[in-house]
Amino acid sequence: MALEEKREKRPPVTPMMIEEEAALRNGSRGLPPGPWAEAAGPRPRTTERHIAVHKRLVLGFAVSILALLAVTMIAVMLSVRFEECGAAADGPPRAGGNGSLSGAARQPPGAGQPPGRPEEEVRGGEAAEEEEEEEEEEWQRRRELPPWARPRLPRHLRPLHYNLMLSAFMENFTFSGEVNVQLEVRNASRYIVLHAHRMHIDAVRVAEDKLAGGVRVARTFFYPQTQVFVVVLNRSLEVQRSYNLKIIYNALIENELLGFFRSSYVLHGERRFLGVTQFSPTHARKAFPCFDEPIYKATFKISIRHQATYLSLSNMPVETSVFEEDGWVTDHFSQTPLMSTYYLAWAVCNFTYRETVTKSGVVVRLYARPDAIRRGSGDYALNITRRLIEFYEDYFKVPYSLPKLDLLAVPKHPYAAMENWGLSVFVEQRILLDPSISSILYLLDVTMVIVHELCHQWFGDLVTPVWWEDVWLKEGFAHYFEFVGTDYLYPGWNMEKQRFLTDVLHEVMLLDGLASSHPVSQEVQQASDIDRVFDWIAYKKGAALIRMLASFMGHSVFQMGLQALKRVGKSVNIQEVMDQWTLQMGYPVITVLGNETTDNIIVISQERFVYDRDTKPKDPARGDNSYLWQIPLTIAVGNTSHISSEAIIWVSNKSEHHRIPALEEASWLLGNINQTGYFRVNYDIRNWRLLINQLTRNHEVISVSNRAGLIDDAFNLARAGYLPQNIPLEIMRYLSEEKDFLPWHAASRALYPLDKLLDRTENYNIFNEYILRQVASMYLKLGWPTNNLNKSLVQASYQHEELRREVIMLACSFGNKHCHQQAATLISDWISSNRNRIPLNVRDIVYCTGVSLMDEDVWEFIWMKFHSTTAVSEKKILLEALTCSDDRNLLNRLLNLSLNSEVVLDQDAIDVIIHVARNPHGRDLAWKFFREKWKILNARYGEALFMNSKLVSGVTEFLNTEGELRELKNFIKSYEGGAAVSFSRAVETVEANVRWQRLYKEELFQWLRKSLTQ
Ligand SMILES: [Zn+2]
Asked: Which of 138, 536, 682, 704 ranks highest by number of CB atoms within 10 Å?
């Protein structure tokens, strides 16, 4: 699953049990009872865990390169369990129960007859309630939670196969279904407990498979607290027998973003509807009664009945379609391999498609709205998908395991995309691309989301988490691969070595530096906790830890074989090391004090890095002092023209002395070479000065990634008060000579929060002036792009074009006069000629600058273009440009329009509000609007927790006055429940902002004043 990500600003894996391949091959597939039962139980968090490694994957790992080794490593070291899914599942499933499909399921709910034969009717009413109460009391006497009240499903049953027959009624947005689940009994029990939520159940029947005898149902009931449906039987189901559970139900195709939901688009002036699913992590239960935990892998045979004007899609290809005389058709899909419910999927739509075929014969189709397909907007995605499947097949040495892969572009989706096996769903903005009007940045976004989802077809779908607490491994790995896979497609872009730093490492350290952060591996007790684990910490910290592990393990160690991996170096136990990084929240800052003693001894100390050091630790039982990591610190010594080769020092104590042989009077120390480690490094002021001198005199002695790393560390150390405020500003002076993109990008990102802390203060212009001076000469040198890039140019000059873009962005946003004029001229030319000649790569900058500088007519013009354009990438940047106005009336108008789903898509409304909050003229408006509309917003996004927390942090992160902090605290007090985690993070962030203002703002301005008069 990929979360919504903006490249220029700010996106989770689980226990792993990989099985012996042999078991997969020789049909006797099925999890052996021991490990299966064990895996379904709660997992001890620090003790030894069992793992068996799939031979085929091991072979794949052995011949693959560094990155992949990391995963194996992590999986082994953490003994994280994933479940391997075999292409060969159990033998053909028996037809469910006594087979006959009831006619009632084919009718719209309400219109239909009750099931043909009287099935076991669902009993309700007072008698049933009484029984229920008695039963609960009985459990209480036994001092046990009844099986339906437990956070996890009881383990006495296991689904082997589902036969699911659906009828979708798009005219009234309802569907009906009949599911037949073949159950294996592990422990005798009178109860069948499975997930079902927000549906109406018409009939339930339980039959013994072989004997064809029915088992009488005593009663059934929903237990909403755990989102389960309970079938109580008159007698126990017997061990080792298998039974068939049949449930007939109906539900709504909801107008929200989870479960089986609907969305729409306009074609030739006519609104058309589609229905699509999003089941991850816990929403399959809204579409059919099922055992909705990833451990319960089963095979699925799906049939979908719909009007013939629609087509239906699912994970597997259609086997047969049966047409009826009344204009309805039933598509019967092939049976799936064993899989979890969360990546099952289907869709009913009237899209068209284009297709391609990989070398190994996988048919890849991209389905989208017909006008987009006709325009060729899906061709880029289709083309790279074919190449990426070939890449992953070679990389993992495991072929793609389904006969087809469909990519579905939908107008509305809670995430950027979802990796459903064989039917991945993408929001249009993350897959459709019109080359004539897309920037490199947009192309990059689209590319990385596709690389991510395809990676999951192996790591996630084929090999699946057993439970949710280690979501970070699956997601961290896919996130890491976004960079590796993009390097495969565009070798010159150096994504993994460079952009990973700014977009992942620097980004997540911002979040993880809060005292209210959480460990990357989070305990998950109940369903309501599960959404919470899909957050940036899981995705980005996961990816950063995988990269750190890969770099300190090294390639050669791996070749010694998995057994030897338990130990690396003299005294380092990898499992112990990694537990510290995955089970503790936050990260360390290392302080290197050099040359203070004789004999070339340096002192290295570690402490937990936090932005607001006044904040009480989240867990009062352990103060920040008790945090300790084993840190693989790489360190090098340099002088004016030379840097020594790096040495690795394992730092495991609060403070340690180390001897550095080549340390001379004028030489500097540099830690965390190429920023492969997940920590910050601080030095004594003398060493910082030496580093600044080095950068000024000859920055190329220090690697590009370390230049970016020094900038990011310095800005953040200063923000948290570990370093004087002037040091980062002094470092960035060397940028006038910097020709590489990455350090500029790091500086631009680090300046952003500082700018937001200062942008409403009276001395803001001093800061502004200082930044403009640093940018001026590079802006002049690079100039503006003159024409649009063609494809080959994109490949060759990515770094250069991105550097130019970054510098133009800084120049325009800090008020460089030439930049402003240029933007105004380009906008005027567009308006007068009605031809948009603005270079693609800087369009967003030009639009935003134009809207902020020019009068209301320009805003209206952009507003009109936003309505008339159909290209999704263009629509998005036009919408964001509207938030750049300094006219508060227009900003208010926009905020009010943002909640109208006909005008602004649900997922875009959040961006509108956040962007208005970033605008200093709109911050208070967005904050007020957010509080007034919180009920509506929370109802709309509450369940898609990720979107909700993005909204909360986006609106609050730059509040920085005492008054705003009070307002925030009062607001939290005045409403109940939900988003509590996001709000505690928000309070901490704003407290840190206020603290910074109080302690350091004046220090910064004083230095700036002095510096500008020199
Ligand atoms: Zn993912």
From this structure: 536
d(CA 419, CA 648): 39
Q: How far, in Å, CA of 427 to CA of 408, rounded? A: 8
To which residue do tokens 């060969």 refer?
A: 88
Report the distance separating Cα 460 and Cα 8, nearest Å.
Answer: 27
| Active-site hit among 393, 419, 453, 469 | 453
Which pLDDT score, from 0 to 100, does residue 987 have? 93
Q: What is the pLDDT of residues 966-1001, one digit of tens each?
A: 999 999 988 766 667 888 889 999 999 999 999 999
Q: What's phi and psi for 386, nearest 5 deg?
A: -60, -45
Distance, CA of 781 to chain centre: 38
For ligand 1, the distance from its centroid to the CA atom of residue 169, given in whole angstroms, is 31
Distances (CA, A) of 15 to 42, 53, 376, 925, 960: 11, 13, 40, 44, 40
Q: What is the pLDDT of residues 693-720, one digit of tens each?
A: 999 999 999 999 999 999 999 999 999 9
- Per-residue pLDDT of 563-581, as tens digits, reads 333 334 444 576 777 888 9
What are the tens digits of pLDDT across the range 850-883? 999 999 999 999 999 999 998 888 999 999 999 9
CA of 775 to the centre of ligand 1 (A): 37
Please write the tens of the pLDDT for every residue from 504-522: 999 999 999 998 888 988 8
Å from CA of 344 to ligand 1 middle: 15
Q: Are strands 299-307 and 328-333 parallel, antiparallel or unpaired?
A: antiparallel
Residue 818 CA, ligand 1 centroid: distance in Å:
43
CB count within 10 Å of CB 55 equals 13
SS3 letters across 746-804? HHHHHHHHHHHHHCCCCCHHHHHHHHHHHHHHHHHHHCCCCCCCCHHHHHHHHHHHHHH
Contact 262, 173 (CB under 8 A): yes
Of 133, 159, 130, 158, nearest to 146 by C-alpha is 133
Distance 194 CA to ligand 1 centre (A): 26
Residue 604 has pLDDT above 70, yes or no: yes
**CB distance 380 to 433 below 8 Å:** yes
- Give the relative orientation of helices 888-898 and 906-918 as an angle to the nearest 10 degrees: 160
283-318 burial: b if 16+ Cβ within 10 Å, else e:
bbbbbbbbbbbbbbbbbbbbbbbbeeebbbbbbbeb
Let me know how long the chain is: 1014
Long-range contacts of range 918-922, CB-CB < 8 Å, 24 or more positions apart? 918/756, 918/883, 918/954, 918/958, 919/883, 919/884, 919/885, 919/886, 919/891, 920/756, 920/759, 920/760, 921/885, 921/886, 921/887, 921/888, 921/891, 922/883, 922/888, 922/891
Determine the distance separating the centroid of ligand 1 and the alpha carbon of 419, expressed in angstroms: 7
Residue pair 920/760 in contact (Cβ under 8 Å)? The answer is yes
CA of 475 from ligand 1 middle (Å) equals 5
Distance CA 685, CA 705 (A): 22
In this predicted structure, the answer to whether residue 77 has a pLDDT above a threshold of 60 is no
Q: Which two tokens stand for residue 704?
A: 């590009």
What letter represents residue 843's amino acid? R
To 5 degrees, how large is the angle CA 446–CA 448–CA 449? 65
Q: Is 453 a catalytic residue?
A: yes
**What is the distance in A from the centroid of ligand 1 to the CA of 425?**
12
Query: Where is 43: in which H helix or E strand?
Result: none
pLDDT at 143: 83
Q: Is the pLDDT of residue 361 over 80?
A: yes
Phi-psi domain of 494 (left: phi exceeds 0; alpha: psi -120 through 50; beta: other): left
Q: What percent of the chain is modeled with pLDDT above 90?
A: 61
> d(Cα 708, Cα 286) in Å, to the nearest integer?
47
Q: How far is the CA of 362 from the centre of ligand 1 (A)?
A: 22
Confidence class of residue 32 from pLDDT cuts 50, 70 and 90?
Answer: very low
Output the pLDDT for position 540.
Answer: 94
